[in-house]
Design goal:
about 375 residues, alpha/beta, Aspartate Aminotransferase, domain 1, Aspartate Aminotransferase, domain 2, seven-stranded mixed sheet, 14 helices, 12 strands, about 40% helix, about 15% strand, globular, binds pyridoxal-5'-phosphate
Length: about 375
């Protein structure tokens, strides 16, 4: 494992972000999707330079972010993005909500595949649409998109699908053939696909990320991709993300976003995102090494101290989906674990109907924090 200097807990507790202010100091906070690593130096440099210039005004209408995102996509995934089809927005959530507002009418169905990132359902309800579930197929370890369930949902008057690619919380990196089949279904039924690719820079060794818009003409005709440096480089509070299209049809919807969307984006977020996507590869490689180490360490620690807990190594990101059902801790094991083990996890039942009995753990932390969390949970069993 490389020497990525991870601050001790006492220092992390000085951070003022949600992860460190939501729980008292005796709780190990492993829910909110922030990582505990120090900022990438090129990002820190860009931010320090901006502060030194008192450069805290509005984001400027420059092509910098579009060029940085497309340069990264070419290097990382051999994916060609036209910078003219990149639109800057404040965050992925706002990007998805604003596109949904334009492609669905109130009362329409929007499909998701639980267990999936909880706010997808909030965003769909925010635009007055209703959530249609087409759960992932299979069992832990063999998760896949359920193409039959998606076909039924698309045929039942859904107008959009929010794809999580890679899929939070199970860490599934969708195989190309599933994305091709999904695009065919979308084309057949006239369903817009909003592909949330926020975790894509954190695909771990052994897996290969496939950008949805790269798979076929159908995908490009119906697809929108959402990228940001906020997970990969831990910049969530700075507020900058990109909506990407690759065909005139979806671009028409993006063109209808408010001309003010750029000014609603964080200027520091744009500066940091440009630094991350242009100069952040070495730091990201170190983070990926730590996450790779941690996903193995988590598996070993659970096998040793909590063998009843089901865990399948995720292929992407820093989130683990833990199955507590055989322990008989009820639908919300995270509540019991917080109260008695003083470890904060996310409650699985919030990730859709299939999440009862599960909890999500953030392993974007020091290895010692991870082993301490497992030890605390094992002690209450
Ligand atoms: C799949 C997914 N999408 C979106 C977000 C939130 O992104 P943003 O803060 O850019 O809205 C997260 C945060 O964890 C996420 O996991």
């Amino acid at each position: 494992m490389p020497a990525l200097p991870i601050p001790p807990l006492a220092e992390l507790r000085l951070r003022r972000s949600a992860k460190w202010r939501t729980f008292p100091d005796d709780v190990l906070p492993l829910p909110v999707a922030e990582m505990d690593f120090p900022l990438a130096e090129p990002v820190a440099r860009a931010l320090r330079a901006a502060i030194d210039r008192s450069d805290t005004g509005y984001a400027a209408p420059t092509p910098d972010l579009a060029n940085a995102v497309s340069g990264y996509a070419r290097r990382a995934w051999d994916w060609t993005i036209d910078p003219d089809q990149v639109r800057t927005v404040a965050d992925v959530g706002i990007g998805i909500v604003e596109i949904l507002r334009r492609v669905v009418a109130p009362g329409d169905g929007v499909v998701i595949s639980p267990p999936v990132y909880e706010p997808f359902a909030w965003w769909i309800r925010e635009v007055g649409a209703h959530v249609v579930e087409a759960p992932l197929a299979g069992q832990p370890g063999a998760w896949r998109l359920d193409l039959d369930a998606l076909e039924r949902a698309f045929a039942g008057h859904a107008t959009a699908y929010v794809l999580c690619n890679p899929h939070n919380p199970v860490g599934l990196v969708h195989p190309r053939e599933d994305l091709v089949a999904l695009a065919e279904l979308a084309d057949r039924h006239g369903v817009h696909v909003l592909s949330d690719e926020i975790h894509a820079p954190l695909v771990l060794p052994g897996a290969e990320f496939v950008p949805f818009l790269s798979v076929s003409d159908e995908a490009r005709r119906w697809g929108f991709a959402f990228l940001s440096a906020s997970k990969g480089w831990n910049l969530a509070g700075l507020k900058a993300a990109a909506v990407i299209t690759a065909d005139p049809a979806p671009k028409r919807y993006v063109d209808r976003l408010s001309p003010h969307s750029l000014y609603r984006t964080g200027h520091l977020g744009v500066l940091a995102t440009v630094a991350a996507f242009t100069e952040g590869d070495p730091w990201l490689a170190d983070v990926v090494d730590v996450l790779d180490h941690n996903r193995n360490l988590l598996g070993e620690s659970l096998a040793r101290s909590l063998p009843e807990v089901g865990y399948v190594r995720p292929d992407a990101g820093f989130l683990a989906w833990l199955d507590f059902r055989t322990l008989g801790w009820g639908d919300d094991p995270a509540a019991r674990i917080l109260a008695t083990a003083k470890v904060a996890l996310n409650s699985g039942h919030r990730y859709g109907s299939t999440g009862a009995g599960f909890a999500r753990l953030n392993f974007g932390c020091a290895p010692q924090t991870l082993t301490e969390a497992v030890a605390r949970i094992a002690a209450i069993r």
